[in-house]
Amino acid sequence: MPPRPDILVLHIGFNPGTGIFSIMHSLISWMKKQPGIVVAGGIFAHKKWPQHYQQELKQLDVPIFLRKIPFFPGSILLLFFSSALSCWIKKLYDAFMPQSLVIHIHQGPLSGLHMPIRVSLPCPIAIVATFHGGVFQYYKAHKKMLFALLAQRLIKYDKDNLALTSVDRSGIITHSQLFGFNKKDFHYIPNPVEDKSLSGCPRLIDPEAPFTVGFVGVLDVNKGWDLIGKAVEELHQNGKKIKYLIAGNGPDYNAAAAWAQERPQYVNFKGYVDNALENLMPHLDVLVVPSILEGAPMVILEALSCGVPVIATPVGGIPDIIADHQNGFLIDREPSSIVAALNKLIEDFSLHLNMSKCAKQTFQERFEINKIGQSYFTLYKKLLSNQRDVGFN
User: Contact, 74 vs 99, CB < 8 A?
Assistant: First the structure.
């Protein structure tokens, strides 16, 4: 009979979008390789949840709970009355008989949907709720009341073995103000990215190549793909050897595609790109993120992992990641500011090279999956040891 695992870790999400799903996927993939750990994933999803996400879950080769829920206003409330999650947790416990259990719920106040965990097990249980950034627009008006209810529901139960984490420091302040949390109750643990040993900035290898500017994300005016376009167009008209890659999906898909089609000599519209980290980032010399609102964008971390500097607006958790004039530029949300930053990198080879090195160093020191995974394990063990000595080494 195999030895009992030290910890069973369950990662739970409600209809997770691209960023949150990527984080959950990365953590599950990393944790399944750690000795003495069993990891599983639980998803409550609408019927329109992307099919390719479901395929990626299967490829993880871990126990997966996938519960489809109707897509209509108020369907979120069904989770209040669902016992499916508790039944699944009990089955997993019976199958693996772990010495302790961690339930890691993503999406911040929505974690309150799963409270209380209606299962009694003869082992220590810890609950971690991770607050991801960039979703504050959903807290406005009448929705704020619902999220406040869920947030209070989260902290009402199992308070002694609950930890709140935020992927960016600005999120700690915002969520504390919105929902009455104590800022001291939060732990700052950034988003993780796996180191694929990839290198970007092809112009550093071939100085005669076009300087390639990238946008990767939701095609929406709030994300600023059009502002980048205006900046690139100005530099092209001024004789700069420049190229603009646009990748993503969203409300402005057709507009972006049409705009690019009119400028084929220096704009390449990619549409949705699967696995942009491997398929797109190595082709960029710089990533530009001129958003109005962000949390801690995964796309920025993926760029840094390839040594690609980032030009971005200083919103949300971006100043936690980008140090101005070191691994990128923090700029005003104006085409002229984008032009100025791009021009510095185009004209100064040494600056571009140094920023690329700093980008890679920033990633390896702060956001690489091994560091983030260990940070979560440290938190898990602290919570579990608060209940009793569970014999961790």
Answer: no
Q: How far apart are CA 268 and CA 310, in angstroms?
A: 19
Domain range for 245 is 202-366
Query: What is the β-pairing status of strands 64-69 and 101-106?
Result: unpaired
In angstroms, the CA 222 to CA 375 distance is 33
Q: What is the DSSP letter of 122?
A: S
- Asked if 163 and 379 count as a contact pair (C-beta separation under 8 A), the reply is yes
Residues 188 and 313 in one domain: no
Q: What would the mean pLDDT of 294-300 be, rounded to a whole number? A: 90
For residue 136, being part of any structural domain is answered with yes
Question: Which residue, chain included where needed, has tokens 């529901």?
Answer: 153
pTM for the whole structure: 0.88
Q: Which helix (H) or strand (E) holds 42?
A: strand 37-46
Q: Say how many domains are in the chain.
A: 2
Spatial distance between the Cα atoms of 251 and 175, rounded to a whole number of angstroms = 28
Using the Cα atoms of residue 58, residue 64, residue 67 and residue 73 in order, give the sign of their dihedral.
negative
**Distance between CA 305 and CA 299 in Å, rounded?**
10
CATH assignment at residue 269: 3.40.50.2000
Any residues with CB less than 8 A from the CB of 128 and at least 6 apart, and which?
102, 103, 104, 105, 162, 163, 164, 165, 376, 379, 380, 383
| 266 band by pLDDT with thresholds 50, 70 and 90 | very high
> pLDDT band at residue 391, thresholds of 50, 70 and 90?
very low
